[in-house]
Amino acid sequence: MGGLSVFGALADETAAPAKPAFRPASPLAPVRAQPDRLIDFAVCTRPFRPQGPRIEAQRLHGKNVVHHYGHGGSGWSLSWGSALRALPLVLATRERHIAIIGCGAIGLTTARVAQRAGLRVRIYCKERPPEVRSSAATGVWSPDSRLYAAEHATPVVAAQWEAMARASFKTWQTLLGLPGEPVAWHDGYVLSDIPFGEPLPDTGPNDEPDYAELDASIQDLRPRAVTLRPEHHPFKAPHVRRFTQMVFNLASYQRLLMDDFLREGGEIEQRDFAHARQIAGLRERTIVNCTGYGAKALFGDTTIVPIRGQTARLVPQPEVDYALYLRGVHVSMVPRRDGLLVQAQGPRDFNNEDARVDRAESEEAVRRLAAVFA
User: Fold this and answer.
1) pLDDT tens, 62-110?
2) 102 vs 110: CA distance, rounded Å
């Protein structure tokens, strides 16, 4: 799921005001933001590692294991570039038949990248889409969302991240315009009671670390945000900024990945791993560990910190084709084909693995959205 940097350069203080001639192409359709229109709730735990994703090889229980997990809130966004970075470790084992554990964002994408490299792939998993945790993601381009703690963002790390982000972005662009619209670009609006040049008030103690802000190096991939004058938008907010964002329609995209994987000879076997020793019984000699947050228990990675994320969907409104972000209260809405996805974020999310749905949390987010329309 996306984090506080979900909408890219929202806090870019160099964003220019809109030219006086700017007008929306057509009036913005209001969101029918009513709690009784909520149709689905989901909770996931983002696998945050302060030092970033684990992409490394290990000899374990008689197998060649390539670890590929720990992408925080950037799993979908970085999946293609990250899989390309893991691929040389897989190829170095010289095995043509490999296994992947996990069928989420990283597992499925890694499987497709391996197939494109000529490998035969079998996925072992307890769950598959739409039951995997990745299905609960917000589904927006957020390649540096809760990915690294700031102190770990060395120049080498930043360069590796940029390479992954650019490779992923390039692949995402090849998916535009396909049936089911797995990827689309949408405009969005940031609404704030406080001028964008002023910091937000301190909300009190928070154990969440400062995250690395890396996206300055890929600003050429994003349309520039602009600040709007009151006569140029319909919202009840003193400060509004317009941006453009890439959105993933996860239901159709996951189906596309699954169909492509199976059509090219991929296999999926139901398997619930209780401990890492069980990989010794797999027929493949090279295993790619794409278990995400599950790696904490399965492979004993105590560096993983869960970051809870709850989303909810409002009944689809095809006429609402823009995103909203309420600055300072961390409420967002993303237009997707399967509904208007609403997310609220807060300090209780960090190091919280509670996967129970809190309906009141989503209903309050919807009420906040309703209040922004004149």
Assistant:
1) 999 999 999 999 999 999 999 999 999 999 999 999 999 999 999 999 9
2) 10
pLDDT of residue 2: 44
What are the tokens at 225?
């945000």
Would you state the pLDDT for residue 201?
Answer: 81
Domain boundaries defined on the chain: 16-370
What is the 3 state secondary structure string of the chain? CCCCCCCCCCCCCCCEECCCCCCCCCCCCCCCCCHHHEEEEEEEEEEECCCCCEEEEEEECCEEEEEEECCCCCHHHHHHHHHHHHHHHHHCCCCCEEEEECCCHHHHHHHHHHHHCCCEEEEEECCCCCCCHHHHCCCECCCCCCCCEHHHCCHHHHHHHHHHHHHHHHHHHCCECCCCCCEEEEEEEEEECCCCCCCCCCCCCCCCCCECCCHHHHHHHCCCCEEECHHHCCECCCEEEEEEEEEECHHHHHHHHHHHHHHCCCEEEECCCCCHHHHHHCCCCEEEECCHHHHHHHCCCCCCEEEEEEEEEECCCCCCCEEEEECCCCEEEEEECCEEEEEECCHHHECCCCCCCCHHHHHHHHHHHHCCEC
- Asked if residues 352 and 306 have their Cβ atoms less than 8 Å apart, the reply is yes
First to last CA, the chain: 30
* Mean pLDDT for the stretch of residues 200-207: 72
How many whole angstroms separate alpha carbon 39 and alpha carbon 213? 34
Predicted confidence at residue 6, as pLDDT, reads 47
Q: What is the pLDDT of residue 204?
A: 58
Sheet containing 331-336: which strands, arranged edge to edge?
A: 16-17, 226-228, 239-248, 183-192, 322-326, 331-336, 339-344, 305-314, 38-48
What Rg value do the Cα atoms of the chain yield, rounded? 21
Q: Which sign does the torsion angle of CA 342, 348, 352, 354 carry?
A: negative
Q: Whole-angstrom Cα distance, residue 240 to residue 193?
A: 9
